[in-house]
Amino acid sequence: MKAREWGVLLVLSGAIFLEGIDIAMLNIALPSIREELGLATGSLQWVVSAYVLGYGGFMLLGGRAADLLGRRRVFLTALVVFLVFSGLGGFAQDGATLIAARFATGLAAAFMTPAGLSIITTTFEEGPKRDRALMIYGGIGAGGFTLGLVIGGLLTAVDWRLVFFMPVALTLVLLIAAIAVIPKSARPERRGQRFDLLGSITVTAAVVLLVLAVERASHVGPAWTIGAVALSLAFIGAFIAVERRAVDPLVRLGIFRSGPLVRANLIGVLFMAGFFGFQFLVVLYLQELRGWSTIEASLAMLVLGIDVALAPTLTPKLARRFGNVPVLLAGLGFAALSFALFLPAGTGTSYVAMLPSLVSMGLAFTLAYGPLTIIATNGIDESEQGLAGGLLYTSFQFGAALGLAAVAAVNVAATSGDSPQALLDGYRAALLVPLGAAVLAVVIGALNLGRKRVEVGEEPVVERVPASA
Known about the structure:
The protein is mostly helical. The protein has helices spanning 3-37, 41-69, 71-91, 95-123, 128-158, 162-181, 197-216, 222-245, 259-289, 294-300, 306-310, 314-322, 324-342, 351-377, 385-414, 420-446. The relative contact order is 0.14. Mean pLDDT is 84; it is low at 452-463.
């Protein structure tokens, strides 16, 4: 790569790292936030849910906006909004302000993330060069999710507000660097094209309601959840009807003719559901059952960060040697192995005994994240790379919400008391949810093995889905 290309890649990788640590750091800071601001459990849940709704609900809109309005323009604007509202969250003196700030931050991420990914996929031509760039991008992004737990724990031990101010500092650095290194480009040709406002409203309503139903499932009655899901499905039906008739649709339905794209998004849902559910349960196990401090629990999870070193270095070599699909399957297999290895953990299990499970999870991110990103974007027309990125990260966010809601619901249902054994029984029952998700992801990923493996220098074998289809 040229020096300018390295600069672009590192800035955009920094942005996806920022998004990952922002989510992970907040999760581990929640107990401290509750204590200082005096938040009830329901309000505390909304600190997480507000971000998820802003991020997951508007991701498709963000991806399409990048394609239509200009990727650099959308990326830089979203960075500014992310910076401002992260800072507002750090200064919040009450729950309402914090929740509003988190929603706006998630909304900014919904535009920033697909715009950044599409800049990479349009800067680097499809093939080995783009694959290498996406491996580095994916590895650094995965490191944000894993290292965020450690960084968040250390910062929270000083002051939970640093969990918000640290992203402000990082965002400012990225903004300055992005202005300098991301090249300006001509505004996309929109002659005769109109923004699909009705499609935007219906799909955003559908995704917001679905994510909300999943997020709140363990806090409200079944009638409320069923009603929210039914209303979401109604909006999905309306969205499909609108897109079929739209001259310039927000989401061209023909993009779903790409089998690899569809399978990659399903795997993205399952992989993130497993990881976030597992992370949630491990933190509860270490802090509530074993009595470990926030710093101790954070340092215990440090080994997950091996993906920061291995994903940009080892994974590209393995992908060149074996292909993206086998490497992805290996990563999904390590995820299933990680969850299975943690099942026997008891009230006196040593940290050394937990290590194989945690190392396996780190290897899962090392091997899965980059190849999954490549499979989800290869073969897609350049004019729709923002849309493809938006679809993938919507899947990630929905998977995270689904995994957290599912393990929380199973954990509550399976915990019969306050004794250590009752808590342990609840954790073990809930761990079956990530394990089941990982096994299903392996099955779906194996469907790609029937396709010819793409070797270095070959054109992708997936049929390119043209924007006009």
